[in-house]
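re: ur question from earlier - yeah i can do the single chain one, its not a big deal. heres the input i used so u can compare w yours
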Amino acid sequence: MVCGLLAACEDRGATQQDAAAVEETRTSTIWDLFANTDDPNTKLEVNKYIWNASLDVLNFLPVQTADPFSGVIATGFGTPPGGRAAYRATIYVRDPALDARSLTVALQTRSGPADVDTVRAIEDAILTRARQLRIADSKL
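and the output i got, formated as tokens:
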């Protein structure tokens, strides 16, 4: 009987230690979702050269929305000079680096997604224009 009582005490001690260990390792609770812990000084940055180059290269498309804080430009349908097909684009500039990884272009025709080669040509044109704008800016 004494052995059973000692075993029960040992289990309770282990349970209390386990609970204390779990309490120490827990770093957040469900209530942390409602806490305002965001840094108000945090800002999203986009590359200004890619942003401006996107607007330059796709100037034949009417801009519907442009949010420089999130880096998204959405356009309506437009026909390129000398072209027959109408396109619309969504451009996402997601990084302040002048790099191909910073740019994502989604191009659509009225009948569905545009050809991959056309999208790649638009991306190349935007990046080339962005580099030209940066070079012109550094000469000032």
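The longest strand covers residues 87-93. not sure if urs matches, ping me
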